[in-house]
Amino acid sequence: MNKKFSVFANFYIDTEERFLRLQDSFFSFKNANIHDWNINIRGKYKYKVRNFLKKNIKKNLFTYFKESKKGWIEDTESIIKNVKTKIIFFWIEDHICVQKASRINLIVNEMYENKVDHLIYSFFHKGIFHKPLKVIKSFKKKNISVFDYNHYNYEKIKTMYEKKKIPSNYLIAGVSFMSLKLFKKNLVISKTKTKYNKLLPFNFERSFEENIILPFNNGVLNNELFVSIDDDHGEKGYSLISRKKYPDRVSKREMDLNRRKKIHIFKSTTEKKIMTKIYNIFNKSFEKKI
Asked: pLDDT-derived band of residue 287, with 50, 70 and 90 as boundaries?
């Protein structure tokens, strides 16, 4: 019997392109075994998004227009009070499911069966999340692999990253299925993080160094499930646009520049200036190549 899960989103939809991508993302997974939808919408397209969701979701839809000065974390805390299941799907609007919705159901079932707290559903990158499994004890199921992300395993994985000189994976990612328990715990921890603008979701994610979130039971996809529309994420040819599987209507560079004009990503003005300078240098170098 399929276990149900809840969909959560707290996104900013401010252009026609983002709205179109949201719709495509929605239709790619909407037929999965979803119990309830808890969606906070910000940006000038929020009314269009709400109307779209109301038209396509017939029950258990809760929509909000929260955008308080307290920030993304505290607004999210109030939203998830209506979550009705033990597993949350953190919906990011520019990722599309490339499998049948029935595959999502099988994955969620295995999460329930194995008490998995966290599973990244996108940025598969030819199995990049499988690398840590080579140095710790894990259990491979039909659709996911599972391991205990305790401090002992963390140190073994850390040693592997350092020895092989490869980038470490995030401990907690936005593009993930999470247990409601871990989701709430991470929200509390995120209140003390001040690296990013509190109006944005980035403080919710945990880099590999932010191991205060440990321990939890982690899941890894055995096969690709969702793919980013335009973010190659360090791997040439990864995104759907790069694969020529999605219309290239607006470039990622243009999307990013438009967003940066409206809101500062970093809390620190100095840090923002440094990152902007690096970003501009990169773009000038890129433009020369083309």
From this structure: very low
